[in-house]
Design goal:
The structure holds two protein chains of two kinds.
Chain A lengths: L1 H15 L4 H15 L5 H13 L4 H39 L7 H52 L4 H15 L2
Helix pairs in contact in A: 1-2, 1-4, 2-4, 2-5, 3-4, 3-6
Chain B lengths: L1 H16 L4 H15 L5 H12 L5 H43 L4 H33 L1 H17 L4 H24 L3 H9 L1
Classes of the chains: A mainly alpha, B mainly alpha.
């Protein structure tokens, strides 16, 4: 049952991601690419690129589009519901028991303990993208794009969406 | 009708102006909720954020759900979430629709190749940010040890990340509980004083 798979994939990946939408990306990738094989890592990368060009929360953009691709409009709605509803309902319920969770020591340690895991997952994902880029575009273009991207993003602090658009243009001209 | 309209406008605006995923839209949501529409005070907002952070999953939709619920109940929560995610979702489907239609053209495949290193770079930066947060919260040695263990367990032993996350959460919860008990026993007097201040 494809709808059940969609629900399960996005429910699990959002249950595991602590620290907002971006932290769920490696888990979504794990479900969508490795487990259910709905798309290749490369296609997943394209989605991530477009999602980063657009504003707004990343988890719902990814979930909505992947759900749409796999199961049409119902698939999209199911993916969105699985992404949003569990945590949204939980936060409303949790507020009724707010005093039980005021102890920030617990919370700090809980979020802290998960962060290194997410860092490693994202790091591995980054490594895979660099390898793909190396294989498709060669070392010269990879170095140019990475160096220019790094400079513009973190030193000159140009808007990320603008850099992605520039990279798309560069690729269209030099890598086609 | 007015509260629903306000919720729609407020959350649509934060949805289309926030770049880099949910966490980066938090200051924008705070502006709408606290300064502009006065749905809650700054303290309440901080408390909501802290609480929302204890739960997994996307943060912006959790905030939208709670604020919407506070203003207008379940329907308010639904309105706030939909207003927040819909514009960018439509943009996503539209842009990818165009991209997929022309995917066989060399120009489009070149575009995709061009953006791949940038995505790698952005993921690397996110990885660094998470590692850095962990370093601040747990200290450098523990962060490094946990990262090393994760790398081995996830990459070389091929364990599902969920198992690793579960193990970390259980471990952290037990440690925090144990510490609290130890602290609560001898200096409960001090703590009570601190709380009253």
């Amino acid at each position: 049952m494809i709808y059940w798979d969609i629900f399960w994939a996005f429910f699990i990946s959002n249950l595991l991601g602590y620290g907002g939408g971006p932290s769920t990306i490696p888990f979504v990738q794990n479900e969508v690419v490795n487990r259910y094989e709905w798309m290749t890592l490369h296609e997943f990368g394209d989605l991530l690129a477009i999602a980063n060009v657009l504003p707004g929360p990343i988890a719902t953009k990814m979930g909505g589009f992947i759900g749409y691709q796999v199961g049409g409009i119902p698939g999209m709605l199911i993916a969105l519901a699985a992404t949003i509803l569990p945590s949204a309902i939980a936060v409303i319920i949790l507020f009724k028991f707010v005093n039980l969770f005021k102890d920030s020591q617990h919370v700090k340690l809980l979020t802290g303990s998960v962060q290194p895991v997410i860092a490693i997952l994202l790091g591995v994902l980054a490594y895979q993208f660099f390898i793909t880029a190396f294989e498709t575009s060669g070392i010269v273009h990879l170095l140019i794009l990475t160096a220019a991207g790094w400079l513009l993003l973190y030193k000159i602090k140009v808007h990320p969406a603008l850099i992605i658009l520039c990279a798309l243009g560069y690729g269209g001209v030099f890598l086609s | 009708m007015k509260p629903f309209l306000d919720l729609t406008i407020g959350f649509a605006r934060t949805g289309v102006t926030g770049y880099g995923g949910g966490p980066s839209t938090i200051p924008l949501i705070e502006y709408e909720a606290v300064k502009k529409y006065k749905w809650m005070t700054e303290d309440e907002f901080g408390q909501t954020l802290a609480l929302a952070n204890t739960l997994p999953g996307p943060i912006a939709t959790k905030m939208a759900a709670y604020i919407g619920y506070k203003v207008k109940g379940s329907l308010g929560a639904l309105v706030a979430i939909v207003a927040h995610i819909l514009p960018s979702l439509i943009g996503m489907v539209g842009m990818l629709g165009i991209l997929y239609k022309y995917r066989s053209s060399p120009f489009v495949s070149g575009m995709v190749a061009g953006v791949t290193p940038i995505i790698g770079l952005m993921l690397l930066e996110m990885a660094y940010k998470f590692a850095d947060k962990a370093r601040k919260g747990l200290g450098f040695p523990i962060m490094l040890a946990l990262s090393g263990i994760s790398l081995v367990v996830l990459q070389f032993l091929n364990v599902h990340p969920g198992v690793m996350i579960g193990a970390c959460l259980v471990g952290a919860f037990s440690i925090a509980t144990f510490r609290n008990r130890k602290k609560a026993a001898p200096d409960s007097e001090v703590e009570r004083k601190e709380e009253s201040i």
